[in-house]
Amino acid sequence: MASQATIWRATVLTLFPDMFPGPLGVSLAGKALASGLWALEARDIRDSATDRHRSVDDTPAGGGPGMVLRADVLAAAIDAADAARDQPKVRPRLLMSPRGRPLTQSRVMELAAGPGALIVCGRFEGIDERVITARGLEEVSIGDYVLSGGEIAAMALIDACVRLLPGVMGKQASGADESFSEGLLEYPQYTRPQEFEGRPIPEILTSGDHAKVAAWRQAEAEALTKARRPDLWTIKAKQKRPKTTTDG
Ligand code: ADE
Predict the structure, then answer these.
(1) Can you give the CATH number for the domain in which 27 is found?
(2) Domain tally for the chain?
(3) Which end of the chain is more exposed for a tag (fewer CB within 10 A), N or C?
């Protein structure tokens, strides 16, 4: 098992620490958490408020609706989280935000290979821009839709990382064969019964010819990717294209 010093650690800064571990406490991630393969700490941003009312937000400068998370309070929460750890502060600091760069499997793989992450969950209309710069926060989005806060987005990111940690997936395939790791969507899967509501399993899958099965799966994965995710397919096609002198 990984030692305390090297364990993958997620520190989440949130106004709703009770939301954690939530779904991360069950199934694959939950078992791995219980057995010490990774660690999770949810810290309440409100603990860093300094006034009598423990306020963390205020009205936006320049006017407009909603409330903005204060830079001083959030910076203090980040600094307190850093100070609470004896390890060097090398973890990436992420801010879950619909404005961020979209999360990809390759970024997930990078994060999983590192020491963990400090993850700030936004709420309200946003957070004061100055803390993003001052504390070097990397804004990360999990998709082009708006959640009511960053907590569920943080859980999605953590789950995607944790399942890649050594020992977490056990004997299951290491994730090398699944959607995105090859830049393709996953091919269709089937199991018993042999016929379901008049629909048989594609014959090739029960033929016992491994080479033909592999070729069929590859073709299906490519067809699905072309149809559903032309954006991914374009990237894939560019990667496959042999280098020419005009490629730069
Ligand atoms: N917070 C609110 N919406 C979000 C999204 N789509 N991704 C990440 N964080 C968010």
Answers:
(1) 3.40.1280.10
(2) 2
(3) C
Query: Do 88 and 24 share a structural domain?
Result: yes
Strand, coil or helix: 10: strand
Verify that 228 and 134 share a domain, yes or no.
no
CA of 219 to the centre of ligand 1 (A): 34
Tokens 């935000």 belong to 97
What angle (nearest 5°) sits at the alpha carbon of residue 243, between those of residues 240 and 248?
125
Q: Which of 111, 43, 37, 51 is nearest to 79 (CA)?
A: 43
Cβ–Cβ under 8 Å, residues 163 and 169: yes
Please tell me the predicted confidence (pLDDT) of residue 148: 94
Q: What is the mean pLDDT of each run of 10 residues along the chain (248 residues)?
A: 73 98 98 98 97 96 95 97 77 96 97 97 90 98 96 98 94 60 92 98 98 98 97 86 56
- Total residues belonging to the chain: 248
Q: Encoding tokens for residue 117?
A: 């992450």
Ligand 1 site-directed mutation target among 96, 108, 139, 140, most atoms within 8 Å of CB: 96
pLDDT of residue 123: 80
